[in-house]
Design goal:
The structure is a homodimer. Helices cover 61% and strands 5% of the residues of chain A. By secondary structure, chain A is mainly α. Chain A folds into four domains: 2-62, no CATH class; 65-272, Clc chloride channel (Orthogonal Bundle); 297-541, Clc chloride channel (Orthogonal Bundle); 555-689, CBS-domain, CATH 3.10.580.10. In chain A, a hairpin with a 2-residue loop joins strand 6 and strand 7 (669-675). At the A-B interface, helix 9, strand 1, helix 10, helix 20 and helix 21 of A face helix 9, strand 1, helix 10, helix 20 and helix 21 of B. Strand 5 of chain A pairs antiparallel with strand 5 of chain B. Chains A, B: Keywords: CBS domain, Chloride, Chloride channel, Ion channel, Ion transport, Membrane, Repeat, Transmembrane, Transmembrane helix, Transport.
Chain lengths: 690, 690
């Protein structure tokens, strides 16, 4: 297309095109020119059009277009989240109904229990892989990479959105048997919606476009968490943690705004669908508000933080081991490469056998869904004391408790079985090549860990730890603290602490939750162990610089020198008009660096293609001996790096200043350029070195 | 001191000094050498010393020294906060006791009511101004400036800490008469403690020092809010908002850690002093948890956000007007310049006359302290309905309610008087030249605004807005939402929303609070109106770039060209050894730029003073004709800006990369350098232009 500009006539044509394009501003686009053929109801249509334009103007005078995009992002993701939840709940109820109708026929029950999740996992895998193979997995490590500035193809496409959505619903409908969650893929979905909205926004704004896609993706990450849990604050904190090294405070208000839009829509939808009476939290708890815990219990919360940190290390190690094993073992890697669906079916079948309620599932409350598991674990009553007086409980609570303490099995035994078995089942489930989140399972596992400690304490101190005041131990509080601490330790983040608060509304426990999360984070971060997402990034060799540097800090000293590429077409100051014309003909770049001479390429600045075209137009009839330096304004380069700049510094500067390309000079001489493509290559090379 | 290095003998001396300094690592410092004169209990002392060293080693293997600094910062500020609160409460009780003992003697009561705050304000003003004039005011605008990278003298000194501490206690003890708060100065105090701890840390770490003062100050800002309110999360959000343009995610965990340490210590101190039974929030509320509000009430919360935004505009305008009036009016500005203490006494006396309980104070609950005012406003019972059945309330609640609804005055009248009169009193109080915070008054004023709306609604809809469910309107909820929205609008931040949540623990209202705060922020930020702190920055002409750019966005296009200063001593590549010696003798710089020739100063890189000294040492006996370029490794400059870089970009890059000085080149030729001092000058020039 750019080749058109060469001849003089086409340049005139081009000017006219530009002029007409300028007159077609956004507002004028709505007015259809009068030369069109006759259409019915002309007056009514033009009146409606006028109204629409006035509304549009009024709306744009109230706030910029980007704010409507943020609001739309919040509302759309909340609608999507609600629809996913509704569909999954129906599919889960169908499975439960079928299973209960087969009561008495163990074989049929076994088939129902095992084949249902196996089929769903197969469907999820084959669907996502046939439409968009990039839709498998959580998607969060890839999103972190994209937000850090490196482009990955197909991760933000609409086909990926469709594949991930359907795959996620299938995965979630497999229920607590495969024990996988929603957050990670949902944040990915929200990012895809965000990227799509940004494309619309960019096309509506044209060249005035002020917000970049990166900003929209940061907002979309916050919205993802917020619309998933109805938790705006933890969404914003998540977006701060996910971004990497420097958070632009400019994104802070948009993040909050979009997150609140998402959370409000999600909660209002629950009200309108008669699920709840008013705007409230997802997991209602009833902790005692007067004396939620004794001050001395803080020491136990600290211990719980240490415990969660230690268990998270075991989990993270096993997770990395199995991921590496699956990739390196010849048989399994070939099996997965060729028969993904069959692999999913096999693993889901295996998981279902273990959790079958007539086998080991009897000891680990396997009939409860993920939501019921968490609700049960956050219950504030002491299960161990109920066993003597079960009729005191409400009906729903009694059902949950009976699942956790079936006849002949104590609460401790079932919690212990759950903790010991689920850990390995979860590690196995993480190898499934389907869209799935790993946050909620980890959160529930942490809750079980905390509950186990809480129940143990309640057994040891039936009248509370301090005998002075009458406050008994609340195992639900321990479960909440454990959940936040374990999820925080696994992901190396602090936003799960806020998430625990917002999910339950239990602000009484804010200090213990934060303490335990900080301590578990400290334990799991010791000795440069990678987090859950960092581990996946490293094993998948994603070009995510921070996870590489965290895994091997010496990489932060690597310099960009070896990765610099030549700067493409370079003009010299004494370039004649004919030379400029050649350059315009043979290259498609938008901006050209100008150096002193090709022999001693001291970088003088840049000229744009438009400048050169104007220059050609002015000088077409004059003499061709004038040089570029005399007739063209060379703009100095705002920012130059040297070959000794480290990759980390270059990455940081480019992402903060939002530069697409930076010139690299040495002793004033142009060495080359660094663009995001080179940055990606650099990080990929570094990833290979680990 | 650096002149010593020139001669050869002194160079040797220097080498020896360096060697001995290196052997004196931190751990070895504790061992006192054995040549010292005899001291008693040698064995016991050495054993204790050995133990201390082992403990030190164990602690440092557990976490870096900086983490202990963060913990110390949290604990110290919490202790300081608790001590301030305790002292202020005693002084306030003394005043209340004296006033109540004078019951029946109106004249004596008048004198007691007016002279007590006037004396305290005089004391606060004269004390702070005689010890450190920089201790007056909130200190937050200055802290924002310092955190953005620009140094201001005396703002982090120990004398300022002492003056501000005593001054703040006096101001707070003047009570709700002068209606000033604690947060701003306390954040400043916390920053001073942080700066002091950083000096200790830097001296202990020596050259290995990894964390900069800027990072410590960001953490200290979070701790300030956290230790003041026991609210860690809003502390962290505050530190993100205060930082300016880019928040380093590296500071995120330290902020959380220190903030939790502060909040925990503050709350534990309350437990140990028998104020509270367990670790709990500062303002206990008892909102109905089952149905906290009807979904339709969200529309009213939105209206409340708009109202708070509009009132905040009035307040901000008046505040800026009075600050400018005080500075420009000849009489008052001369009066303040010469007689600060008398001015404070006069204003405090005037304020006390208006709030005297036998005058207008009767209609605005002036006998309540700031804490009581907020507790009363957040009460969940409807005051208007109590008036018919007052005996139902508890004793403390009845006292608070009686103050708000004294005989013959309806709740609406007293709330209306409070809102109408306090606004202007607060604007007047803001001119007082003493250490004082403006957040809490604004927060309480917002609560009154919300309460007024809530009481009005409760009067209009006595059975709740929706007749379907039995949930009556909770005016306390409106007060909470109003407080967050108004404080957020005045400061242009969102952290007050979190602060409101953490102060009361009312997580049921998280969505309305966030919605109202976002909307009030949108209203108050419209048309580039400066925030409360921005307004002070602009009027005081502080070198804070972001507030300037917010006030006049075209300043973001100003280029650094006109501000670049020459780069001091510049070496040329062909410099001979004798020339180098002259340079070393005549300059004190640590690093020298090297150019091609002085006539065509193409920047080649830099050499350090140490390199040059080594060079001199090697070549002292050889021929002196060798040039610098042949014998010395010239390190390329990692980052170069051009004269066309904007001030905003340069500021952003320098603060993100944490560079002390950046070279400015044009067409490869060295133009000069930019350091933080030049940056400060640039911003001061820009501030003059507004």
């Amino acid at each position: 297309m750019e080749q058109v500009y060469v001849s003089c006539t086409s340049l005139d044509e081009n000017k006219r095109q530009q002029a007409s394009a300028q007159s077609e501003t956004t507002q004028d686009k709505l007015i259809i020119c009068n030369e069109r053929p006759w259409k019915p109801w002309q007056p009514a249509r033009s009146r409606i059009r006028g109204c629409a334009m006035r509304v549009q103007r009024a709306m744009l005078s109230l706030a910029g277009l980007e704010w409507y995009c943020y609001a739309a992002l919040g509302v759309l993701t909340a609608l999507m989240s609600f629809w996913i939840d509704l569909t999954v709940a129906k599919l889960l109820r169908a499975h439960q109904w079928l299973y209960s109708r087969l009561e008495g026929h163990v074989l049929l029950q076994f088939l129902c229990w095992t084949l249902y999740p196996a089929c769903l996992c197969t469907l999820s895998t084959s669907f996502s892989h046939s439409i968009c193979p990039q839709s498998a997995g959580s998607g969060l490590p890839e999103m972190r990479t994209i937000i850090s500035g490196v482009q990955l193809p197909d991760y933000l496409s609409l086909s990926n959105l469709f594949a991930k959505l359907v795959g996620l619903i299938c995965t979630l409908s497999a229920g607590s048997t495969v024990f996988l969650g929603k957050v990670g893929p949902f944040v990915h979905l929200s990012n895809m919606v965000g990227a799509y909205l940004h494309r619309l926004y960019a096309s509506a704004c044209g060249k005035k476009q002020r917000r970049t896609q990166g900003e929209m993706l940061v907002v979309a990450s916050a919205v993802g968490v917020s619309s998933c849990f109805g938790a705006p604050i933890s969404g914003v904190l998540f977006s701060i943690e996910v971004i990497g090294s420097h958070y632009s405070v400019r994104d802070y208000c948009p993040c909050f705004f979009a997150a609140v839009c998402g959370a409000l829509t999600l909660r209002l939808l629950a009200v309108f669908s008669r699920e709840q009476e008013t705007v409230t939290v997802l997991f209602k708890t009833s902790f005692p508000a007067e004396i939620p815990y004794q001050p001395s219990e803080i020491l136990i919360f600290i211990f719980l933080g240490l415990l969660c940190g230690a268990v998270s290390c075991v989990y993270l190690f096993s997770h990395r081991w199995i991921l590496r094993f699956v990739r390196t073992n010849k048989f399994i890697s070939r099996f997965i490469a060729t028969e993904k669906a069959l692999y999913s079916a096999t693993v889901a079948f295996l998981l279902a056998i273990v959790t079958f309620p007539h086998s080991a599932g009897y000891y680990m409350a396997s009939q409860l869904t993920m939501k019921q598991l968490l609700s049960a674990l956050l219950d504030s009553t002491q299960w161990n004391s109920i066993s003597h007086n079960a009729t005191l409980l409400g009906e729903s609570h009694q059902f949950l408790w009976q699942e956790w303490s079936p006849p002949g099995v104590s609460v401790f035994k079932s919690l212990g079985c759950f903790i010991l078995i689920k850990l390995w089942l979860l590690v196995l489930a993480c190898t499934l090549p389907l869209p799935a989140g790993y946050f909620m399972p980890v959160f529930i596992f942490g809750a079980a860990l905390g509950r186990f400690l809480g129940e143990g304490l309640a057994y040891l101190f039936p009248n509370g730890i301090s005998s002075e005041t009458l406050s008994v131990i609340n195992p639900g509080g321990y479960a909440l603290v454990g959940a936040a601490a374990f999820a925080g330790a696994v992901t190396h983040t602090l936003s799960p602490a806020l998430c625990a608060l917002e999910l339950t509304g239990q602000s009484t426990h804010v200090v213990p939750i934060l303490i335990a999360t900080l301590i578990s984070n400290a334990v799991s971060r010791s000795k440069h162990q990678p987090s859950f997402y960092d581990g996946i990034s490293l094993i998948k060799k994603l070009p995510h610089l921070l996870s590489l540097i965290r895994a091997s800090p010496k990489l932060s000293l690597v310099q960009i020198g070896q990765f610099v590429v030549p700067a493409g077409t370079v003009l010299q100051r004494s370039e004649k008009v004919t030379g400029v014309q050649n350059v315009l003909n043979n290259s498609t770049e938008f901006e050209f660096p100008v150096v002193d001479t090709h022999e001693s390429p001291t970088l003088l600045g840049t000229v744009t293609r438009e400048q050169l075209q104007a220059l050609m137009l002015e000088n077409q009839n004059e003499d061709l001996s004038k040089s570029l330096g005399d007739v063209c304004l060379i703009r100095p380069v705002k920012l130059q790096l040297s070959t000794e700049t480290t990759v980390k510094q270059a990455h940081c500067i480019m992402s903060v200043v939002r530069e697409e390309r930076v010139f690299v000079t040495e002793r004033g001489k142009l060495c080359g350029i660094i663009t995001w493509q080179e940055m990606k290559k650099m990080i990929e090379v570094l990833a290979e070195e680990i």
